From TrEMBL:
Pfam families: Ala_racemase_N. Residues 10-130 form the Alanine racemase N-terminal domain. GO terms for biological process: D-serine catabolic process. It comes from the Eukaryota. SUPFAM superfamilies: PLP-binding barrel. It comes from Drymodes brunneopygia. InterPro entries: Ala_racemase_N, D-amino_acid_metab_enzyme, PLP-binding_barrel. One of its GO terms (molecular function) is D-serine ammonia-lyase activity. Coiled coil: none annotated. This is DSD1 dehydratase.
Length: 156
């Protein structure tokens, strides 16, 4: 009920951190779900099933190996993997650093490599490094730094 309220009744555009959550929301009629964790190989079959079932099941990629895994496991029926490039802008959990020389090459490979198999939807960054903040100005500083890093990367 909360997710339906949060989406204005559209049941679209939600983000989940586990595939159990994705399956739960899919069973509830949500058909536009982002799995906000770089796809591990052992979860690929589950992600593929959701991608085939839903209008838009989106995943994160943060390495050339992750992209290659998707390319080697295309979706059937003309569907494409919908991919967000995951940037690590300071929380050191997952993602490629936007200043890493490989980051731009990876973005280009996702966007231009095999458009019939993989579509670059966007750039994703999570400010998990705000969890330890003690006040609003500290949270705002991290948000500004993350926004600046993502915008600089996208501009490049």
């Amino acid at each position: 009920e909360g997710a339906e309220l949060a989406t204005g009744g559209t049941r679209r555009g939600i983000v989940v951190s586990t595939l159990a959550e994705a399956r739960f929301f899919a069973a509830g009629g949500f058909d536009d779900i982002l799995y906000a964790f770089p796809v591990p190989r052992w979860r690929l079959a589950e992600c593929s099933a959701l991608a085939q079932r839903l209008e838009a099941f989106q995943v994160l990629v943060d390495s050339p190996q992750g992209l290659e895994m998707l390319l080697q496991n295309p979706l059937p029926g003309g569907k494409r993997w919908l991919v967000w490039l995951k940037l690590d802008c300071g929380n050191a959990r997952a993602g490629i650093r936007p200043t890493d020389p490989e980051a731009l090459a990876l973005a280009r490979a996702i966007a231009q490599g095999s458009p019939e198999l993989v579509t670059l939807v966007g750039i994703y960054a999570h400010c998990g490094n705000t969890y330890g903040c003690r006040d609003i100005p500290a949270i705002q500083a991290i948000a500004r730094d993350t926004t600046a890093a993502v915008l600089e990367f996208v501009t490049a």
